[in-house]
Amino acid sequence: MTSLSLQQERQQYIGKIQELIYELKIDSVMQKEVVVVSPEASVRDVKNLLLQHHITGIPVLEGDRLIGVITMSDVIECLERQDYECLATEKMARPPFPSVYNDESVAHALNKLSQYKERRVLVFDHAERFVGIITSGDITNGLLKAINLGFRQEEISQYRARHIFQDIESDETSLVLRYQVKNGDFIRGGEASSKIKKAMQRLGANPQDVRKIAIAIYEAEMNLIIHTTQGGHIVAEITPKKVTMTVSDTGPGIPDIDKAMEAGYSTSSLTVKALGFGAGMGLPNIKRCMSEMKLESVVGEGPGKGTTLTMVLYPS
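^ thats the sequence. predicted structure below, dont judge the formating
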């Protein structure tokens, strides 16, 4: 089994960033320890804090309520007039300011930063209390930490998965995955194929083999959802030499297997077709992707009836 190419790793990295932008909450990456001043602070005090902490603006709080923000340009204006005791409240900018809630996604903060062309966005909780600020730098650092943590965990999982056949001593070792699929469950359609695909990726399978397996299992899974009365089962047995997948149900069976194998032939209802399924390409797609395919069917419902589809792929 081969490792991912550089291009595939890059695409995986970009995809992970896109996911994290929507998964990460602002609270997990924002600055919570923020330099603030009270309304009674003078511009002299503000100037000293700005220089000490190498920042360009300071929130002005009354208790835990934000009443304004004073910046270096405000301070300079007072100092040019030699008004050293000017209060922060006299020069500060007042709300509203671009802001976000701490339980919103990082994507929301990025939108605000871009929309208002600001270097920072103020963060509040839902009680409208000021709880921090967030900058593009905070978001970048948060994403990098999350990505590194995620990839370390994924590397550990992949290492363990890829060595499973080497670490276990037996005459023949196989990994068996079992899934139950319900009839008519379009909401969860594709869930089993997605899990099998992820397992193959963690085992370090060739990406082309993973793609073929994912296509074949997805088509078979959707057939269980669309064409059976009780759903069915998917069993994937993975060994170093081959992957064998068996999909079975208890009815109603396929009256004409040869006809069912024809591209474009479909017995799906108009309702199913309106949902975008039932194009009649499922079994032909499976045959195209697999090294071996065997389809057996007994018309009727109940034990001993229904369809069994066996698919085999020999890893490249």
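The mean pLDDT is 86.
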